[in-house]
Amino acid sequence: MSDARVHSSASSRSALPRPSAVLELFKPITWFAPMWAFGCGVVSSGQPVGERWLAVALGVLLAGPLVCATSQAVNDWYDRHVDAINEPGRPIPSGRIPGRWGLWIAIFWTLVSLGVASLLGPWVLGAAVLGLALAWAYSAPPFRLKNNGWWGNSAVAFSYEGLPWFTGAAIMTAVAPDWRITLFAAIYAAGAHGIMTLNDFKAVEGDRRMGVASLPVQLGEAAAARLACWVMALPQVAVIALLIGFGRPWHGALVALLLAAQMALMPRLLSDPRQHAAWYNATGTTLYVLGMLASAFALRSL
Asked: Cβ-count burial of 130 within 10 angstroms (0-12 exposed, 13-18 middle, 19+ buried)?
């Protein structure tokens, strides 16, 4: 090995990643979904924030900048070889996070997440352990759930919507949340599987080349888009029925209106799924998460 290559290797090992590169690795834009779901859990508990404000603030930190950020770091580390081909500007393949720093950051942030979760009670700690386990299983061998759209999308949907909702309610009650809260969290997590399928359209060609069996690759783009629409819509129909059954018809009517608006947008999505998936995620998915909040307020008043 030449002196230049030795010097380059040593520099790579000793260099520290810049904070801006670490923040980019954590992808703050992805934190919104679990933080929103956590907020729905807080609202659905029916408990005033009051003296629990610090626990709520730590819960928001746990849902987004800790657990979700950890999942992004883990994913980028185990995708670094693929990203070197498809997205070489990302922090790890570009060298802005050198050596094995990507892995060390993912491990350290996992431990920090568990430490914060342990301060918030056993139910929150249990949810965090499960969420972090899914984050590692999604990206890391031997499981690498992301290689199959059915399993990978289920893991992300559960972690992004169901677990944070449960966590938000558990922080407010300090016990296991009411069964109706857990049920609604699970229903909306099931619907989020469709949102994850829509996210897969941006990488169809790369997934085909790399052998990643996303649902657009497995089923074809048209069939996967139709499936995503059904998977998002049917849980909302169940929510509407439950709200009416729980004596909250006005909340059910609001969710029905939001669902009707989503259905009005679906034909454009289905006309060209790859071109319009991002647009539908910005419009239809926004309506979906507004329905989550409406449902949380309904549960609050039960």
From this structure: middle
Q: What is the pLDDT of residues 108-130, one digit of tens each?
A: 999 999 999 999 999 999 999 99
The structure tokens listed for 146 are 């992301």
Separation of alpha carbons 161 and 33, rounded Å: 7
Contacts of residue 83, defined as CB under 8 A and 6 or more positions apart, other chains included, come to 76, 90, 92, 93
Same domain, 151 and 46: yes
Residues 173 and 153 in one domain: yes
Looking at the fold, whether 238 and 295 belong to one and the same domain comes out as yes
Rounded to the nearest 5°, which phi and psi values hold at 120? -110, 10
112 occurs within a structural domain:
yes
CA dihedral 258, 259, 265, 267 (to 10 degrees): -170
Q: How far apart are CA 271 and CA 225, in angstroms?
A: 10
Total number of domains in the chain? 2
- Same domain? 69 vs 201: no
Check: CB of residue 284 under 8 Å from CB of residue 273: no
Helix (H, G, I), strand (E, B) or coil at 174: coil
Query: Domain range spanning residue 290?
Result: 179-302
pLDDT digits (tens, 9 = 90+) for 48-98: 999 899 999 999 999 999 999 999 999 999 999 888 887 899 999 999 999
136 and 253 inside one domain: no
| Tokens describing residue 41 | 């859990």
Can you give the pLDDT at residue 302?
85
User: Is the pTM of the predicted complex or chain greater than 0.90?
Assistant: yes
